[in-house]
Amino acid sequence: MEPQALFNCRELIKRCTGEDYSLELLRSMPVSPTCGSLILIPTGIESQQALKENLIHGILWVMRLDAHTVRILTILVAEDHRGQGHATEAWNRFRRLAIDEGVGSVTLEVRQENEIAFDFYSRRGLVALGRLSNYYRDTFGIVMHGPLKAEDA
Ligand SMILES: CC(C)(COP(=O)(O)OP(=O)(O)OC[C@H]1O[C@@H](n2cnc3c(N)ncnc32)[C@H](O)[C@@H]1OP(=O)(O)O)[C@@H](O)C(=O)NCCC(=O)NCCS
What is 3-147's CATH number? Predict the structure, then answer.
């Protein structure tokens, strides 16, 4: 990703999650190029242009842990675009791509007070495995895990 695009992603992540990642850390994130690199941009705009001009409305980044498991690194939608089904669509797209690659389960961390995200994952079959005390600077993290199933399974 171009430096300006990475910077724009960093600012969106900071705004949506409070996490202040360095550009180096973002650059080194092992995002899966095949099933885990989704960016929400306006329709009718070419992706490189959208990334450069800061027209990024959402991010879903995933890494492979092993042949059968992925971990969600980031999922977010910009404030003005929430509640319109974008996260659901991104999740469904990621799920189909991951299943096509042989992935069967997903794991992630969520802030314990983030009920919207916790409920979002719970309704998609993930369950809490436990709490992490040193994952986030200011709160507990809940580790969630669950199967990835085709819609009609
Ligand atoms: C969590 C988040 C990605 C959802 O994005 P979104 O595009 O608004 O989600 P959708 O419109 O697809 O809705 C997904 C579900 O959440 C529910 N939802 C969305 N906004 C909600 C709100 N303000 N209150 C309660 N439920 C809400 C929807 O009803 C929907 O329910 P469903 O699971 O029954 O389908 C978004 O709120 C966000 O970016 N939050 C900040 C970053 C974050 O917390 N990321 C998760 C980190 S682990």
Answer: 3.40.630.30
